Amino acid sequence: MKKRYQIASLLLAACTVCSAFAACGESEEKTDSASVGTPTAYEGKGTHEATVTATSAYMVQKGKTDYKLVIPEEPTEYETEAAILINEYVEKALGVTFPIVSGVTAESGKYISVGDTSMMRQSGISVDRNEFGESGFRIVTKSDDVYISGSRNTLRRGTYYGAQEFLKYTIDWRAYAVDEVRYTESDQMPLYNFDVTEIPEFDSRRYGSYNVTSNLNYQRLLRLSVKEEEQLPLSGHSHFKILPPETYAPLHPEWYAWKPGYNYDSPKAYLSGQLCLSNEEMQEEFVKQLVQMFRDHPTTNFAHIGQQDIAGPCECDNCKAMMAEYNTTYTGMLVAFTNRIAREVTRIIQSSEPDRQLEFEMFAYQKSIAPPVTLVNGEYVPHHEEVVPDENVAVQFTPMGSVITETMSLEKNKTFYNYLEGWCAITDNISTWTYGTNFHTANINQKNWDIATADLRTYSEHGVRRVYNQSLNNVNIAQLYEIRVWVESQLMWNVSLSYQELAEEFIENYYGPAAPHIQEMFDAMTTYYEYLRTQLGCTGGWNFNLDNVTYWQFPYVESIRCIMQDAFAAVETLKTSDPNAYEKYYWRVCSAYLENIYMQMEYHADKYGEEYCLETIDLYETVCRRFNVVTISEGDAVTTNSCIKKWRSRYA
């Protein structure tokens, strides 16, 4: 493991909240810091088995190849992209491309079979959908041919991920970001005996950061699932997407329940109402609209149908009577409603498409997070048989309000952990929606760098199938989000890995000559954040006020500033020798510096001179413009321009 450093004297000053100026200068002797996310012998439910040995034969040698890429005669998009990916990087690394063919037999040449080809079907190699899901894959060598394939009855994402793995073994390929892909140049590529089986921990893995979700290639390179490819185009709160109140409420006001003083044409009506789940006429129209959506998207078989945000449930007499009949809560009503919708939509679709298997997902969120169960003699018992989710109805567990600086299994989150246990008692079809951001202070990193490992392991142990980490979906963010996204995407695939080691690998490959200093900053941050968590009760979380000088006092802020000045100095050495590399790494260091600049100017500008502050404000504005960072909170409540204007006004 690469050595990690911290500036001991400055961190000690920060942790004791010393008010003295901590000047940049020679650091004291550097020592190993405590490892975050120390690797253990943990084994999840994923499969990660590989035997890869070089043979004496070659697929590419001295700029020539006898091999061809075989794709299906009617390839899916992912199969086509897999072949393109292989050729793109083989050409960069070895200067050749493989001709692409279809409809051949193994005996007629030397091939790399990509996806559900006729060769693959005749090979005897099994990649069963029930075992490998959407994302798993195999790479197998038979004779002088290599087979790369995910399961057949899917979007074939597994085939694309298999192509990535093939490149990893042959040219040391590794994607860290959409603009940072590593590979090794050579003049030859041996033929390897491959026997690789990869099945990820979670079959669907999504990260809700605008920087990622707005870039399809980024998601694919990181093996993140693309929502638009696997689900109907519905938001998390989708009841009003299916039955828009502006369309239906004027004619059917009884279908909706509104907060006092609100109705369908109120501002932000989608936050102010819910459907009346007991209304049978509404249910019929809901089914009709959802059936049409499935027919409009014939290759999509998954629908998230979640209730609206914030507003409480309908409390009409019929809803109360149904809850009484089922001896249940609003959550139980929601399960029963979703079951009825799922059954009827499936019945109608399968009447004309008998082989089509539909899946549905409901929210366990806010007022519906507590499962409809009762603890009896130490066991969870459902309130009624109708409040047990059907086999094709997933429950998306959303622990909003949990303490994100503590793992889900610890005491501070015991309530949410018990909720998860209760859901697991009545269904094995669970997904999660967790929060990797603070909606009100997006410019300050969350204080849970290493918690993701433990929580993903908890979810794996509870059989969770899909994971989603929501960051800021609607605005660009900077300051180290690239590390978090890459590391957590790796953990979603293989949760036995170490967060710290993954972070170190990313930093080493992403920040060039500044990497040692970014690593130093990262370790200083994680050490200091542990102090905030244990000593000051800084819990982070989606709604926790991180914008508080109590947490970011001067010694800490100055210590990070000093490290970042060293990072800039390291990059400066490239300015004349390699201008293109200088440009790349300079802006990456700038992005990583944004949080610290904000803390300097917002909390401690009086410690720096006017000239320094004006130059630093100019840098902040330039970096924000470069990365299109326009706000420091969701919904533009606090914009970067308003901060810059406020800071400059001090010197007017």
Structure description:
This protein is an alpha/beta fold and 652 residues long. Helix content is 41%, strand content 16%. It has 23 helices and 19 strands. The strands form 5 sheets. Strands 1-9-5-6-4-2-3 form a 7-stranded mixed sheet. β18 (430-435), α15 and β19 form a beta-alpha-beta unit. α19 (554-572) runs antiparallel to α21 (579-603). Mean pLDDT is 90; it is low at 1-22 and 26-39.
Provide a brief overview of the structure:
The chain has 652 residues and is an alpha/beta fold. The protein contains 23 helices and 19 strands.
Arithmetic mean of pLDDT: 90
Inertia-based shape: globular
> Which structural class is indicated by helix and strand composition?
alpha/beta
What's the β-strand tally?
Answer: 19
- Tally the helices: 23
Radius of gyration: 27 Å
- Poorly predicted runs: 1-22, 26-39
- Please state roughly what percent of the residues sit in beta strands, choosing from under 5%, 5-15%, 15-25%, 25-35%, 35-45% or over 45%: 15-25%
Biggest sheet, spatial arrangement of strands: 1-9-5-6-4-2-3
Give the key terms:
652 residues, alpha/beta, 7-stranded mixed beta sheet, 6-stranded parallel beta sheet, 19 strands, 16% strand, disordered N terminus
Describe the SSE topology:
Layout: H1 8-15, E1 47-61, E2 67-70, H2 77-94, E3 100-101, E4 110-114, H3 118-123, H4 129-132, E5 137-142, E6 145-150, H5 157-171, E7 174-177, E8 180-182, E9 188-199, E10 204-208, H6 210-213, H7 216-221, H8 227-230, H9 239-242, H10 245-248, E11 256-258, E12 273-275, H11 280-296, E13 302-304, H12 317-325, H13 330-352, E14 359-365, E15 373-376, E16 379-382, E17 393-398, H14 414-426, E18 430-435, H15 451-461, E19 466-470, H16 481-493, H17 499-510, H18 515-535, H19 554-572, H20 574-577, H21 579-603, H22 610-626, H23 640-649
Parallel strand pairs: 2-3, 2-4, 4-6, 10-19, 13-14, 14-17, 17-18, 18-19
Antiparallel strand pairs: 1-9, 5-6, 5-9, 7-8, 11-12, 15-16
Helix pairs in contact: 1-19, 2-5, 11-13, 16-17, 17-18, 18-19, 19-21, 21-22, 22-23
